[in-house]
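S.,

Sequence below, as promised.
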Amino acid sequence: MLDPDDRAALLRAGRPHRYRSGTSIITQGDRTDTLFVVRSGSAKVVRTTPDGHETLLMVVGAGEVVGEFEALDPDFGPRGASVVALEVLDCRVVTADEFHDFLIAHPRVTYELLRAVLKRLRAVDRRRTGSADVGHRLAQFLLELADEGGRAGPGGIDIELPVTQAELASQIAASRESAVRALTRLRSQGLIATGRRRITIVDAERLRRYADAD
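The prediction came back faster than expected:
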């Protein structure tokens, strides 16, 4: 976790920009090195295969950074994925040179960014290879979302989920039909409640035990 002063400095870096929902702020295949610091809103990171199949890699929200690989290393190559605003997205747009200067002035941020990247990679790997059961993988994913941005509400922990069912399924390496069945099973067991673009974790402890059982 960033030191409050480092976080404040990072959120002041670059220049402000607001993007409409549906705007691609990074396009897969482009050779750009701009970094984006999300101040508010959310965006999805998606990769398109040569045959046109789109896979959701992750959803990022306030306080998170995207585009750091290319900003850190000009020889990293073309962008490996696209980043698309899921709602109105307020960002700080930081050039590679500005980011390098920032890291020199705030060296601890390099370590924290590395930790954040490794955490993302571990989470993606765990969801795709950890359990053979789609329901368990879905439960793990929902708990991750709750830890990152869930809000306590009268019915439990509310999670905004501004993605389609197919995109949700791709996050846990499942078909849309399997993901829908898993959602239904969790709901019937009283572990979650679903609404439009929202899931509420009704009983976090029971859901965690379910996710850990295999």
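The chain has a mean pLDDT of 86.

Coffee later?
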